[in-house]
Specification:
432 residues, Rossmann fold, six-stranded mixed beta sheet, alpha/beta
Length: 432
């Protein structure tokens, strides 16, 4: 385990240090018609139509919200194809042939500082809704709903912790786009009339601290603190980060907004900057591809809708012909893929490619490792048993499955190699 941990640290150190490679002109992009939050969707375009960057080409429909689908390139509609989504499911995607001219939609106009300063909170709601901005750390929760809160917000908290193993896309984003981050923070503070903002980073990353501290000199009137928090997983969990960064305990089931705190992932705050400044949806994002199964671990700046297979090829392909484990997202909370025929959506942070190592699941020995490691204070082994017994009442009641964040710690620490997180995932569905 120690050797494996050192290997992960070395790989991450490499991708932390390397400049991000731009891969923003693929021949084709693929845009999902539905996603994990929106089970229904429709396309507004047909084969042969020509579209522009930022053009609305469809609409996803969620249970209580809608998400416009925007083209991320200019070019020609080829049709609808099926590929794997970040959720791990086979999904329909609109395929667009990139003409590589980057012709932007007419509504993509730069707002002046005076125009931005005149924006109201309702304007922020409208713009982020029209630009389909969502949580880019992986949550995909619509940002405009956050701006609709009626609760007074005192503090904007920026999550730049990136606590999952292997990942370093946000690390490079901070190093390369600090001014966009500070501008995005200033917009969020304006919308909520917040008094201060806190950027949370892991304490071990001196380079991030130095970069953000120096960049802040260009924003002398912005009340922003760079807070160094713990180096452990899951420090990036919203409740844990707020506790470490602000000293505020958020009870289970209570929104941070009720305590005067609004949280944004650092990639989302850059997306906010683009939406407010240029009236554009998220067109590109940082993406990590790494692991011991890929030849060249690397961070990329990619066009949303890029084929994962193309990025794998750009990284030298697979190390050898042995079986691989492929995870879209972080290794703790990501989705397993059965093929590399997947697409990088706006909420994809990474792809981890590992050499397959088969493990045999053994009977539970009641060691309580899963209980001790659970950040939410749950009893994963009892949750597993309740799932096997179809005990919905226990899951909803004393076992409190609603509090589970599916962080993966129970499965990671299990001495019997039981996939406890899968049981927790099933328990959540069972308790609905």
């Amino acid at each position: 385990m120690i050797a494996k941990t050192r290997e992960i640290a070395n790989i991450r150190k490499l991708t932390n240090s390397l400049p991000t490679i731009r891969y923003v002109d693929p021949d084709y992009v693929y845009l999902a018609i539905t996603n994990a939050r929106c089970a229904e969707g429709e396309s507004y375009v047909k084969v042969g139509d020509h579209v522009k960057v930022g053009q609305k080409i469809g609409l996803r429909k969620g249970p209580f919200f809608e998400q416009p689908i925007h083209s991320t390139v200019s070019g020609e509609i080829v049709g609808v194809v099926k590929k794997f989504h970040r959720s791990g499911k086979l999904t329909e995607f609109i395929q667009i042939k990139n003409d590589k001219k980057d012709t932007f939609v007419e509504t993509a106009i730069e707002r002046t500082p005076e125009e931005i300063a005149a924006l109201t909170k309702d304007d922020f709601v409208r713009i982020t809704k029209e630009m389909s901005l969502v949580g880019l750390g992986g949550s995909s929760f619509p940002t405009y709903i956050k701006f609709q809160t009626k609760d007074p917000i005192d503090t904007i908290c920026i999550n730049a912790v990136e606590c999952e193993p292997y990942l370093s896309a946000d690390h490079r984003l901070v190093m390369e786009f600090p001014y966009r981050i500070y501008n995005g923070i200033s917009y969020a503070m304006q919308a909520f009339q917040a008094k201060r903002a806190v950027i949370c980073i892991k304490k071990k990353y001196q380079d991030l601290y130095d970069c953000l501290t120096v960049a802040k000199m260009r924003f002398p009137n912005l009340n922003v603190e760079v807070k160094r928090v713990g180096n452990y997983y899951p420090q990036g969990w919203e409740i844990e980060m707020i506790k470490s960064g602000l000293g505020i305990h958020v009870p289970t089931g209570v929104l941070p907004a009720k305590l005067g705190v609004m949280v944004f992932n650092v990639s989302t705050i850059v997306g906010l900057y683009k939406a407010i400044r240029y009236n554009l949806p998220v067109i590109k994002r940082n993406f990590t591809i790494t692991g011991d199964g890929i030849n060249i671990p690397q961070n990329y700046r990619v066009r949303i809708g890029t084929s994962l297979k193309e990025i794998i090829d750009q990284s030298g392909g697979y190390k050898d012909d042995t079986n691989k484990v492929m995870i879209l997202g972080g290794p703790m909370m990501g989705a397993n893929l059965v093929r590399d025929d997947a697409v990088i959506t706006k909420t994809c942070t990474s792809c981890i490619i590992l050499q397959e190592k088969k493990e045999v699941e053994e009977p539970c020995v009641r060691c309580a490792s899963c209980v001790y490691s659970c950040p939410a204070g749950l009893q994963p082994v009892n949750i597993m048993q309740a799932v096997k017994n179809n005990d919905k009442d226990a899951l909803k009641g004393k076992l409190n499955i609603k509090a589970c964040i599916l962080c993966g710690m129970c499965a990671y620490t299990c001495t019997s190699k039981i996939q406890l997180t899968d049981y927790c995932r099933k328990a959540k569905k069972l308790a609905q």
